[in-house]
Each structure stands twice: as C-alpha cells, then as structure tokens.
Amino acid sequence: MKIDELDVRIVELFTQDSRIGVLAASRALGVARPTVQSRLDKLRRAGVIQDMAPTLNPARFGYPVMAIVSIEISQGVGHVPVGEALREIPEVIEMYTVSGDHDVMVRVVARSNDDLQRVIDAIARTGAVNRTRSVVVLQTHFQNRVLPLFAQVGGAEPSEGS
C-alpha cells in the first residue's frame, strides 16, 4: 500500500486526539472532509489502522504491576491451545509466539507483587506450561511507538511527541 504525507498527517492528528472527528480533522489539515474520510477508510480496509479504540492504562484502574513472562510450553501441545487458555486469564494482556529459548512471551498486569504471583500461578496451571520466567517492569519509557515508522514510510518527518 502506498502511504503519503497526507496519510501520515491524518494518522498523527487522530493519534494525538482520537476524538477530533473527521470534520475537525479536515479543517485542521486544510483538506476536504471526504478526503480525510476516504483516506481513513482506505487505511482501515488495508489493516494499517487496526482500530480507533481508547488506549487503557491498567495502572490507573488498579493494576500498577506489569511483568513480561516467558513461557516454555509442552512440545506436543502447540501454541493454539496455550493461547486459548491464556485468553481466559484477564491479566494476560498480550501474547506472542516467539523463536528462541522460549515458546511464548506474554505481558501481564497485576494489582500487587503478591497478585502477580497469583497470575503466574494461573499461567502455570493452564496444563501446557513446562516453565515460566518473569521480569517485572519497573518503568515504561514508551510503548506501541509505531508513528515514527509510519511517518518514515510516508515520507514525512514525525511531529514532536510522536
């Protein structure tokens, strides 16, 4: 898919304020409202924009502890049943099948360190887990930092704060 500077400017604007609306975005960008709408539709259809949902911060509603857990699974089981089992644990907020010494990496949140132990125990009880290793995240410097990459593909310089 060809991405140009206008696509980048539209995505940056909606990233900065997802509630801006198409009409206000068209005014801010100095382009017609149908142009902004058609560009957003094109980016959604292509899967470049996955959603316009709010980004939730688990620490702000009672889950301040975050950890990355690497999981070694039983080789006869496979990652699909493990994923199905982990999806049942609400504190598991991301899952990746990976190469290397571990089979799966997950990002989890918890209410406290004691609660983190409960979450890790729940992961271990899924029936296909041989071993887990975890590291507690002390501070998040940035995450989901895709906008500068998108701007680079579109031939634009990302705006401040991207």
From TrEMBL:
GO terms for biological process: response to amino acid. GO terms for molecular function: sequence-specific DNA binding. InterPro entries: ArsR-like_HTH, AsnC-type_HTH_dom, Dimeric_a/b-barrel, Tscrpt_reg_AsnC-like, Tscrpt_reg_AsnC/Lrp_C, WH-like_DNA-bd_sf, WH_DNA-bd_sf. PROSITE patterns: HTH_ASNC_2. Gene3D superfamilies: 3.30.70.920, Winged helix-like DNA-binding domain superfamily/Winged helix DNA-binding domain. This is Putative AsnC family transcriptional regulator. It comes from the Bacteria. Keywords: DNA-binding, Transcription, Transcription regulation. The keyword Transcription applies. One of its GO terms (cellular component) is cytosol. Residues 3-64 form the HTH asnC-type domain.
